[in-house]
């Protein structure tokens, strides 16, 4: 397939964009990456995603697909001959979708809540929420992985991607607050999983380095008033 | 194999209604367990420990929570009368609109109905913008699913009912037949479809419920100012 038939509109710091890139990597799909500039939106983005005007947007044969988890499912279904991203059993798929929705609806807001929290008390409350979420996810990891390395089993899958994309920002939060949020003592399964996820072939080239992301975070928080929120 | 399908719901939960409609469209036999959310059953707490909410579908002892997740599970497990299209891009589009309904439409409509005066006027702007997107999406189609009810119709359908209830309670027309001809027609066509028509919760009870909810919300908002 010609490279230009597949475009991904995104930005390197966005965990949501990373989800799409990991999915494309799993299927070994070549694509053109269009880096959006912070603080401005390209004409192509505004045309391809008129509803939300956000990244990531996948454009395949000139047809746009929006919303990161929807893109991941699309990649899995459109390139069905490659390694599977979602599990094959309908119940396992439902469980993966449930936890991915939990991550987007509950867990990620607690992590971004930490970044926005003002004062010690608010920060502590936010951190507690993140850690509580990790306890739930640790249990989910145990059930989904069934003793293997990933939520998806032997290979990374939908739920690994849904959660793993946030590891870069998690490390930035830990660094900037001088705390451990993903604690190997409390959540050993997830701690081990995190390292393996970041080392995976489909992930390592698109996971930003913590230092680079920390520098970006500082710029982002300083320019808070003008900067658009990351993706969707 | 004998299938055992149970649905935990309340009489009014619109999210549970989506599941009822899906099960009926596919002709699946199931047992209903009505929950009292002020006194949740041990079963509900066991089956949905994360959210402790309805709906929960239990299939042969295995629970699934979150209505849109349940709809996809039903579609993948029982292949008759498919809810999602076959084509991957069309599926992605359907999921997109269902999520848009969930994330944007509901909250923007609700905002209009719980506000008053100038705040209400301001709340109308995003609500109408969101409805315009849906109006566009209906071009050339009777239902979001095409000729027949599909995933997006089930995801958005109760919204049509809620809108008509709220319009009656507040005396404000939001889905104007002139501004939104396709959406108005869809709301009617969806409500008239046999399976849907037979499964709405009683309208008078819903009016009482939403009137009370709206009043309580307005009081709470005034108190917190």
TrEMBL record, chain A:
Residues 4-83 form the GST N-terminal domain. The keyword Cytoplasm applies. Residues 89-216 form the GST C-terminal domain. GO terms for molecular function: glutathione transferase activity. The keyword Cytoplasm applies. It catalyses: RX + glutathione = an S-substituted glutathione + a halide anion + H(+). Keywords: Cytoplasm, Detoxification, Transferase. It holds the Pfam family GST_C_2. GO terms for cellular component: cytosol. It is found in: Cytoplasm, Cytosol. Its EC number is 2.5.1.18. Its main location: cytoplasm. GO terms for biological process: glutathione metabolic process; toxin catabolic process. It is an enzyme of class 2 (transferase). Is involved in the conjugation of reduced glutathione to a wide number of exogenous and endogenous hydrophobic electrophiles. Belongs to the GST superfamily. Tau family. PANTHER family: GLUTATHIONE S-TRANSFERASE U17, GLUTATHIONE S-TRANSFERASE, GST, SUPERFAMILY, GST DOMAIN CONTAINING. This is Glutathione S-transferase.
UniProtKB/TrEMBL annotation, chain B:
GO terms for molecular function: glutathione transferase activity. Keywords: Transferase. The keyword Transferase applies. GO terms for cellular component: cytoplasm. Residues 3-82 form the GST N-terminal domain. Gene3D superfamilies: 1.20.1050.10, Glutaredoxin (3.40.30.10). This is glutathione transferase. InterPro entries: Glutathione-S-Trfase_C-like, Glutathione-S-Trfase_C_sf, Glutathione_S-Trfase, Glutathione_S-Trfase_N, GST_C, GST_C_Tau, Omega/Tau-like, Thioredoxin-like_sf. Belongs to the GST superfamily. Its EC number is 2.5.1.18. It catalyses: RX + glutathione = an S-substituted glutathione + a halide anion + H(+). Residues 87-210 form the GST C-terminal domain. It comes from the Eukaryota. The keyword Transferase applies. GO terms for biological process: glutathione metabolic process.
């Amino acid at each position: 397939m010609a490279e230009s038939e597949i475009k991904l509109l995104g930005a390197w710091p966005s965990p949501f964009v990373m989800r799409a890139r990991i999915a494309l990597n799993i299927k070994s799909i070549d694509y053109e990456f269009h880096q959006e500039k912070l603080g401005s939106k390209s004409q192509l983005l505004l045309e391809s995603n008129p509803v939300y005007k956000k990244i990531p947007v996948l454009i395949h044969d000139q047809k746009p697909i929006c919303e990161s988890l929807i893109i991941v499912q699309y990649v899995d279904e459109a390139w069905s001959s490659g390694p599977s991203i979602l599990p094959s059993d309908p119940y396992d798929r439902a469980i993966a979708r449930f936890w991915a929705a939990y991550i987007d609806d509950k867990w990620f807001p607690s992590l971004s809540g930490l970044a926005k929290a003002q004062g010690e008390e608010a920060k502590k409350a936010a951190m507690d929420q993140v850690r509580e979420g990790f306890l739930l996810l640790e249990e989910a990891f145990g059930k989904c992985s069934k003793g293997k390395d990933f939520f998806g089993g032997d290979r990374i899958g939908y739920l690994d991607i849904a959660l793993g994309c946030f590891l870069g920002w998690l490390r930035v939060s830990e660094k900037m607050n001088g705390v451990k949020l993903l604690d190997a003592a409390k959540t050993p399964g997830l701690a081990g999983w995190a390292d393996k996820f970041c080392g995976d072939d489909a992930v390592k080239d698109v996971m930003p380095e913590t230092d680079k992301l920390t520098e970006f975070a500082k710029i982002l928080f300083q320019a808070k008033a003008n900067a658009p929120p990351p993706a969707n | 194999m004998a299938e055992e399908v149970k649905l935990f719901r309340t009489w009014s939960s619109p999210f549970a209604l989506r599941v009822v409609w899906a099960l009926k469209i596919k002709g699946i036999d199931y047992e209903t367990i009505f929950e009292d959310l002020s006194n949740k059953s041990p079963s509900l707490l066991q089956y949905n420990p994360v959210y402790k909410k309805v709906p929960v579908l239990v299939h042969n002892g295995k629970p699934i929570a979150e209505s849109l997740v349940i709809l996809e599970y039903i579609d993948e497990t029982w292949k008759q009368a498919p809810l999602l299209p076959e084509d991957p891009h069309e599926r992605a589009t359907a999921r997109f609109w269902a999520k848009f309904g969930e994330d944007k439409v509901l909250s923007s409509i609700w905002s209009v109905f719980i506000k008053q005066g100038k705040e209400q006027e301001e709340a109308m702007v995003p609500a109408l913008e969101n409805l315009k997107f849906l109006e566009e999406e209906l071009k050339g189609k009777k239902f979001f699913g095409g000729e027949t009810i599909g995933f997006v119709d089930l995801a958005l359908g109760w919204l049509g009912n809620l809108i008509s209830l709220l319009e009656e309670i507040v005396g404000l027309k939001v889905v104007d037949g002139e501004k939104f001809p396709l959406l108005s027609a869809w709301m009617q066509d969806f409500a008239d479809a046999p399976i849907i028509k037979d499964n709405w919760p009683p309208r008078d009870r819903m009016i009482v419920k939403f009137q009370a909810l709206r009043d309580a919300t307005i009081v709470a908002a005034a108190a917190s100012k």
